[in-house]
Amino acid sequence: MKKKISIQMMSIATLAIILTAILVMLVFYELFEKQVLSDLKVNAFVLCSGDFTNEENLKKYNAEDDELRITLINPQGTVLYDSSFDHEDMDNHSLRPEFKQALQEGEASVIRESDTIQKSSFYYALRLENGNVLRLSREGDSVISVLITITPVILGVIVCLLILCAILSRLLTDSLVKPIEQMANELDHLENVESYDELIPFIRLIKKQHEDIVKSVTMRQDFTANVSHELKTPLTAISGYSELIENGMAAEVDVQRFAGEIHRSATRLLTLINDTIRLSELDSFEMSNTMEEVNLYAIAETCVSMLKINAENHDVFLSVNGSAVTVMADKQMMEELVYNLCDNAIRYNNPGGYVFVTVGEINGEKYLKVKDTGIGIAKEHQERIFERFYRVDKSRSKSTGGTGLGLAIVKHIVAKCNARVLLESEPGRGTEITVYFQENR
Ligand code: ADP
């Protein structure tokens, strides 16, 4: 990239120098032409005013001092006098453009390439009062010869400027590229990178993405460690009990109990694995194609009737209230959401307690509320219970079949449905979790 920028800068500089030199030269050459022609004109008038208008007087005038060639031509084109050549050897000039034009218009300025292209001849012709034409001419460098003359100068300037360009482009590309290189080397300390304004949004983005990646890697590592740890307990139990039975070390009466333990642990394993799979599915789930109009009240009713027996077993009274409300969501996710919230409200309740599920609309926002009169959650835990495997009371969670993933799944679903969740809880009094849904889009 650095090389590319340097090459481009140098090419642009070279082109600019050559074009400028040619342009300047053409402008100056034109000025030079005008100057020579006007000098010739002045000379012609000086000759006239000094009465150098006939052969006799002209012979006395030393034209060579002024690097001039003076020719006097009569109206028929016959050369009467020439300061550089013998006029008798000269051919008729009646067809020369400057002569013809001066005869017709009084004066004429003409430039002609000489035989060698390196020189140009400048002519100024003036018709005299007696009808003769006085022609002054001078030789000058042609445009090509000027070009050839200044070429070494141009080349010298180009070389100097190219060296300057090389140094400047090096400094420029270094200052452009250095922060980027620094960023690549110091991803963990992006705030130390000395950058320029245009790069700041880019650095912010990279920093955020880097932090996200680090966070997600740590989360994954923690999650894997937690999952392995969670799987270990039931697997150890299964392995231990089955080994006892296998070795015949379990008394006849214990076998059934051990089988029951194995069954419970296996069920626990299954629940854990299902929740883990569900979480990773939700991580990669593309919502839009599964969204539909879902009747939240109907889902709450189904869920409540499904959990009725469970609630009775906990001696908890479960009811659903509210009105028919539809939201744009994934049906299966809504069922999981309601189920997980109600299941928790039953499991963390007290015998004789209540769970009220309410579905409705308030201030244009549709909501689902699960309120219980259970054990409640202390302030310091309220923030964290939506984290994976976070439990307030681990043994209560496990003994009631919890995996520590229920609310993490709820949080994911809420995020996917573009909803928000509000938790209000007081230890000893109960918990109220409300999910607010955005307007149907
Ligand atoms: P678990 O499978 O342990 O229930 P969750 O993710 O569903 O996992 O909940 C995390 C923790 O939050 C629970 O272990 C429990 O301590 C607390 N919790 C969740 N819901 C309630 C509730 N309704 N009342 C009291 N505590 C609750």
Brief write-up:
By secondary structure, the protein is an alpha+beta fold.
Write up this protein.
By secondary structure, the protein is α+β, with helices and mostly antiparallel strands. 55% of the residues lie in helices and 18% in strands. The chain has helices at 2-49, 55-60, 97-105, 143-185, 200-246, 252-284, 296-313, 331-347, 379-382, 394-399, 406-416; strands at residues 69-73, 79-82, 107-113, 119-127, 133-141, 292-295, 317-322, 326-329, 354-362, 365-372, 420-426, 430-437. The strands form three sheets. Strands 2-1-5-4-3 form a five-stranded antiparallel sheet, sandwiched between helices. The protein is rod-shaped and about 155 Å long. Adenosine-5'-diphosphate binds at residues 344-345, 348, 372, 374-377, 385, 390-393, 397, 402-408, 431.
Outline the secondary-structure elements:
Blueprint: H1 2-49, H2 55-60, E1 69-73, E2 79-82, H3 97-105, E3 107-113, E4 119-127, E5 133-141, H4 143-185, H5 200-246, H6 252-284, E6 292-295, H7 296-313, E7 317-322, E8 326-329, H8 331-347, E9 354-362, E10 365-372, H9 379-382, H10 394-399, H11 406-416, E11 420-426, E12 430-437
Parallel strand pairs: 7-9
Antiparallel strand pairs: 1-2, 1-5, 3-4, 4-5, 6-8, 9-10, 10-12, 11-12
The structure holds adenosine-5'-diphosphate.
Adenosine-5'-diphosphate (ADP) binds next to helix 8 and helix 11.
